[in-house]
Amino acid sequence: MRVKLINDKFLSLLGLCQKARKMVSGSMQCESTIRSGKAYLVIISEEASEATKDEFTHLCTSRDVPFIIFGGKDQLGGAIGKYSRTLLAVTDSAFKEMLLNEYREIQHGGDR
């Protein structure tokens, strides 16, 4: 139950990030944002193809951009008020920190 609440909080933060216009989605926009140095965090759907995961994890690693693999395509898209999304790039350091903190909570099952 606690993990679901934390998961919901993570998805709500994604929605706030989108409303604040501090996020881009889709492979072309995310790639451009990463290459331009404007991406602070990349979120890759668990349902992304292996080729997409490999491409973006390599790109993020080479550009020193943290990334996480989280959620389904519909879950990520729904969180930001759009149809299914495979890739999200956060363009704000404060949102990056909040999202990473929530992600760590999810990884630890809600126990700090």
Helix/strand layout:
Layout: H1 2-19, E1 23-25, H2 27-35, E2 41-44, H3 50-62, E3 67-69, H4 73-79, E4 87-90, H5 93-107
Parallel strand pairs: 2-3
Antiparallel strand pairs: 1-4, 2-4
Concise account of the structure shown:
The protein is α+β, with helices and mostly antiparallel strands. The chain has helices at 2-19, 27-35, 50-62, 73-79, 93-107, and strands spanning 23-25, 41-44, 67-69, 87-90.
Description:
The structure is a single chain. This protein has a single domain, classed as 60s Ribosomal Protein L30, Chain: A (2-Layer Sandwich). It is built from 5 helices and 4 strands, in the order H-E-H-E-H-E-H-E-H. The protein has helices spanning 2-19, 27-35, 50-62, 73-79, 93-107, and strands at residues 23-25, 41-44, 67-69, 87-90. Helix 1 (2-19) packs antiparallel against helix 5 (93-107).
